[in-house]
Each structure stands twice: as structure tokens, then as C-alpha cells.
Design brief:
heterodimer; A: about 475 residues; Aspartate Aminotransferase, domain 1; B: alpha/beta; three-stranded antiparallel beta sheet; 13 helices; 14 strands; globular
Amino acid sequence: MIFEKSDKGRKSNYIKKPGIELKEPGKILPQNLLRSSLELPSLGELEVVRHYTNLSKRNFSLDTNFYPLGSCTMKYNPKVNEELSSLEGFLNIHPYQNEACLQGALELIYNLEALLCEITGMKRFSFQASSGAQGELTGMLMVRKYHKIMKNKKRKVIVPDSSHGTNPATSSMCGYETVVVESNKDGLIDLDKLNKVVDSETAAIMLTNPNTLGLFEENILDVAEIIHKNGGLLYYDGANFNPLLGITTPHLMGFDVIHLNLHKTFSTPHGCGGPGAGAVGVVDKLLDFLPSPVIDKKKDKFYFNYKVKHSIGKVRAFYGNFSVLVRAYVYLLMLGRQGLLRVAQNATLNANYIREKLKNDYSVASNKPSMHEVVFSCTKQKEKGASALDIAKRLIDYGMHPPTMYFPLIVKEALMVEPTETESRETLDYFIESMLKINKEIEGNTQILHDASHTTPVKRVDEVRAARNPDLRWHPNR
Amino acid sequence: MPYILNTENDIREMLRVIGASALDDLYKHLPSKIRINGELNVPSGLSEQEVRQSIRLLAGKNKTLDSFNSFLGAGLYDHYIPSALAPLISRAEFLTAYTPYQAECSQGILQAIYEYQSYICLLTGMDVSNASLFDGASALSESVLMSLRITKRSKVIISSTINPEYKKTLYTYLSGFNFKIQEIDFSADGTTNIDSLRQVLDKNTACFALQSPSFFGIIEDAEKFSSLAKQKGALTIFVANPMSLSLLKEPAACGVDIVCGDGQVLGGSLSLGGPSFGFVATKNEFLRQMPGRIVGKTVDREGKPAYCLTLQAREQHIKREKATSNICSNQSLNAIQAAIYLSLMGKDGLEKCSLYSLNLSHYLYEKLKGVEKVKLNFSQNFFNEFIWQVEDAKSIIRKLYKEKIIAGLAIGSFFPAVKNGILTCCTEIKTKEQIDDFVNVLKNILK
């Protein structure tokens, strides 16, 4: 623990003296506004560097390990993105500088918007949202305001039982009632069941396509028709857009409002869980509801346009996670149209290759063809005494980050594998081989799986105890 | 193709394994009606060399703060960042990992976040912190939603001197519900008007939210407000600048219930305002109403200390529509960056930052007192920024800009009652010479 390395005798030498006579805080401010003591550690730079360098080595990461975490699109994060997003001209600009000082940044956002519009068929994008979930909130609040302005009486939002947890949670944050529609035996939307729950009070359906089973919703146009006929809108959760780049667009599928996770499909790094960016795109009828400002261009000058007629307002301060936008833009310039199509094709190819090689040993959750990810149901293994959790933890011993576990909720003992397009066939083969070996291990002694992982700095972590006796911080006097 | 390792040979072989004859076969189950006709109208890909050149050109079109004598703050502050920070936070093992769902192979991340949570608790004096939210604005919004859940009441009162970007965000976040938001005004000295609060506070009030230092830079006497709110059973939410907390009374000692704010000041760059991170800290009793990820310390099966994500029963992936928030990804890397920044700066470094900022901004204030036509009618209890007024703020700002001085932010569009107010900030990076130069040029302009 960093706090335990402190020695009060240590001082820092980072800040210059200001060159004016220094007064004690008590001489400037009333004493009752000041704090009496501050418990912060005093450390030397080497200690801090060593501490955090060593902490960084106690993790799996994309740069060190295969990371087939389903729904998270852990593709390679190109280093050029990092270099260019760290240019002084991007780091050291303040959003309240006048627009003349920010022309490069505004032009970049403007160009990124144009590219994403072409890739998705949407009319405009907002980049305020800092994550996929915040993108959902942005998009669904636009849906809400749209219905309000149109004087549509709407009450509920439909989500499939396979949806990401953020979808129903977002619907609640927008004041809607969530209606869950069961999937059919293939793991796709059941049109009959959908027809039964959709009515004139349906505000929207939130869908991801391919869905969380990695399957393409083949009836998407019928779904769109059912929803639109009832005056509802279609929200596209773009978490799984990767295999559709250059193949189809959310617009062609009938969606009205979408978010794209730039930290998934567009290669920006996940940073232990953020910062990401949720780019929110809309079709014509929702243009007036975008968060304000949008970025427009007049006679070669870019500017913040606050004139958005029915804008929902802002979802965060300033204009979003700008340096994430720089990375996504760099990626798009590198790839170009052929590159984007190759991303989609190879992401789909890699997932199907794994599926084909493992399907005899691990049950595939659906007979429908897979897109960018494949969901296995480890029920056969479970019967022999090894759960999806055990298999996941055992994979760590083989040097790979586990797939997403126990999701989607409708698949028993689920392992959701998303290899992404950037992995080599050799890596996929090693994963396949390891999964087959683990399956053989189950035939022998399952204890080796229950005890996994064996090679990590700590063994199986007691999560129940963590929740029962929350210890959430270091205390100075303990 | 950039970043794809499969060769034509691999592709052929893999297709054979799958039983497909061409890549497009992978898509043959998609309705033809929705297929893109031909190709996307996106330019062809470029070499890294070309991309680098064109991006550098764009970056060069921005004029950074370094090309000015800048006094801009207003919620986003230019602080000194130690050189050791970037190499540590850029380590690929942090940068390219996902949320630490798998504790055994994420111990370093989890411990770093645990240390971050500890730092937030030490600074705010509160019992518990989450693992971060998006930014100060969304942190305030989530804190207000939290107070509505805790009290089950439906009225929200906020001080009008909260950062206007945060206020706008709060209105958006609450727009799906039928909650009422009421803003209370400020007194002649710029402090939040406690009499106005007294008038509107009632048994249906979930919370009162106060920012200190306020958007005007003024340090509020938060204790007065929290004890008043408590009388009606309302919670007090305190929006804090964590940098200021190395010097100012910790919010916990002011009797508040939830502390939130933006963490950019803890080692974050400006980058047009993002990414930074938001923080939320609260009392133990409200722990289970907190939004977002939380890391806890526990043991592994051999009894060794270990860390993991915990109290997940609050979160969307478990509770779905009944979750405390929809948040999934947060701003982990920025939170870890703050922990590293605080470790590097240490107690001594952070206290110096605050002490120097305080002294420099008050030095500037004293100098402005001697400038004719400058009005200083707000409270002198400010931390690192304050409001001054002149006859035509916008034109003065323009004239100073021509002299390469960014005087600060004209706040008239946010606060019509302070039409000609300018919010001016000094952090520890300013020098006596820069301040003197600013005042001298201003004197000339106002002559």
C-alpha cells in the first residue's frame, strides 16, 4: 500500500516558489474555513515509480495477453493513436479559449463526425457522452423529448432478455418502464412475443445487433416496422458494431438513434474501464434534439453552434472526451474504407474459426451463424463438475484473459468469446488448444480447475467476504 | 491491411475450416435489402507517416495556453504536472486493460483504484468513495439522484453559483423524472443566499447542493447550510475542488452528506475539457446507494490480502432496470492517474500548490484594487479565482487578448446579473512577472 511507504521527512521539489511574499492561509482566509490537518503520504519519486510500475505488472492487459472478453471488443490499440492524441496542441487547450484558438480541434471533431455519418448512415453525431452507457442516456433522453414535443403519450421501453444491463438501467433513468421481451430458442427476437408487447405507449426498443449472443437479428426490418407502426423509435446500442463496418449501417437496419463505443469498434484503449467515448448519432427527425452545442462550419471557420431547437441540453461539462476522439479519428484515417471492411470480415472470420474448432467439445449457445463473437454454454462441463467460472480462471493459467462469463443471462454457464480481427491465427489456435486441454483436464481431476488460477499473484479471491465486510479504503490509524 | 495479422493464406485456410468459400459468405444470412450497395464513401486508408503529418497539422492549428499569459480557470485548471506521471500512467498494462472483472489477473489495477478511493476519502474526510464517474457534472447529477433515492423525496435545491455546465447537465439528467429543481440566488457579496434557502427548504426537499469554492471562486461557509438542511431532513451535497481541499476545511467537517466534483486538477491535462473524471464520496450509511464501481479489499483462498470489485448488487449488470445507475465504464485511468499524481506530489507538494495558488490570486486581487474602473464587490474569501467587473467586459477581454493575455472567462452569458464579470484564476504556475504584466497592460487599456 502506497500510504505505508510514507516518511514525513520527505519533501517534493516540483513547484517553483512564486516570487512574491508568501502569507500563511490564516492571514488570508478566516480560520473557520481552513482545515486543521491533512493526512497525505510523503514519498520519494523513485518509490512512487517503483510502486506503480510493480502494480502495473500484476495485471493482464491487451498488450501482454490475449483478451477475448466478449462484448468489449478488445482489439489492438495502435500506438500512433497514443502519440498523436498526446500532442501539445491537443493537450494544452482550454474549452473556454475563443474559437479562433481551437480551430484544429474543432476541425478534427467535424471531420470525425462526417466519417461516422457515412459509416452509419446517421445525419449527425454528438460526442459529449463519455461512455456507451452515457451515450444510451443521451440517446434515450432525446427519444423522450421527441415524444414530448410530438405530444406522443409514451410510457415504456422494450428490451430483449439478452440485452446489455445498461439498456434497462438507462430506460429507468429516463423515467420509462422497462418491458422485457423473451428471445426465441435461437436466441433471436421473437416477433410474435414482440407484437404482443408493443402498443401505442411504446416509446422505443433498445437493441444491439449483432445481439449479445453474437447473432445477427435477421428480422431487424420486421422489428423496425412493428415499432415504427406504433409510433416508437429504434435505439441501436453500438457495442457490437465491429462486424458490420462496411457491410450494413444502423440506418439501413431502420434505427433512429445510435451510440458507438469509440473504445470498442474504433480502437481507443480501455484504460482499466475508461475513459471511453459514446458517439451518439441520429436520423433527420431527431436532429433538433441533440445535445448542444454541435460543431458547424461557416466560411472555413469552425464554431460551436448552440442553436439546437429542442436540445436535451448537456450530459457533461464541455464537449466530451476529446483525446479519445483524436484516437478514433487517427484510426479511421489509417484504415480507410477497405480497412474498415477488412476489420468486419476478419472479426467475423476469427470468431467463427474458434466456434468451428470448439463446437464438438463446448456447446454453442445457438445454431444460428455467429458474427464477431461466439457464446458457449458450458453445461456439459458443469455436469462433470467444472463451471464456466472454473474454466475462465483456468484460462488465466494458460496466459489468457478469460472471456466474459455468465452473460448473456439467458445462456446457462455462458462463456462469451470475442477474439477481434487483430489476433493472429496462431493466437486463436493457442486459445483453442488450451480450451481443449482444459476440457480434458475436466475428465481427470476437476480440483485443478476449482483451484485455478495457480499462476497469479493471488489465488481465487473471496468476493463474498468483500461484499459482506466492505473494506473500501486505507485508514491512517489502523 | 493495418493491424490485421491474418494473411491471404490464413484467410483461405480458416474459411476452409468453417466451410465457407469467401469472406462474404459469412454475411449471407443478412437480408440483402440492408447490405451496403458497393463501398462506403470513406477515403482510402493512409500510411502512418501520412496520418501523422495531417494530424500534426491539425494540432498546429490550435493555439495552446502556453502561447498566452493565461488566467483561465472556471472549472478546468492549468496545474503543474510532474514528469514522472505520464510514463507511469501510459504503461500499457494500465492503458490496455479492461475493467478488472477478473480479480486474480487484475490485482494491480484493483489496488491502484483502492488507493484512489482512499485518497478521495482522505481529502474529503468522508467514509467511502466509488471508483470514479465521468466528470464533475455527471458526478453532481448522480449525487442528486442518489439523494432522491435515499430520502424518497422529490424536490432538489441547488445554489445558483454551481458551475453552469454542471447545472445544465443536472437538468438534463433529471429531465426524465418529475422532480422539481429550484435554484437559490446569491447575496451582494457573491455568496449563496442562506435566507433564500430557508424560504424554500421544506419536508419534501431531498437535497441542497452547494459548490465551494463556488463558480465565482468564493469559499462558502458550508456548515451553516448543512445544519439548516438537516433541520428539514434534507441531505447536503458539496461540490468540491479536490486541489483546494489540501488547504480548505474538509467537507466531512462541514457536516455534509455527499461530496462530489471533478478530478482534472489532480494531474489531468486540459484537453479541451476531457477526459477528466468525477468523484463521489459519502457516509457509510449511504454506501449501498452509491452509483458506479467500487473496489474492496478482501483475501484470497490462502488468506493473502487481495482486491476485487465489490457491492456489485447495486449495478446495472446485476440489477438491470433497478440499478442505482446505468454507469458501466467510468474513467478509471484518470482516477488511477490522480492516485499517482497525489503520491508524487505528496502532502508537501499538494499544500504548496494550494498555498501558492491562494497567494498568487490574492496578490493579483490586491493589485487590481489599485486599478481605476475595476470593481471588486464580491467576497474576498476566495481560493484561486475571483470575479472582477469592468464596464464592458467583452471588449476588455478582446483588447487584452490582442496583447496575448487571456484575462479569464466573461461570465455574463451564464449570470446576467453579473453582466460584466470576469472570472480570473491563478494557479501555482503563474509568476509575479506575469501578474504584474497583466495588471500593467490592463491599466493602459482602461486609461
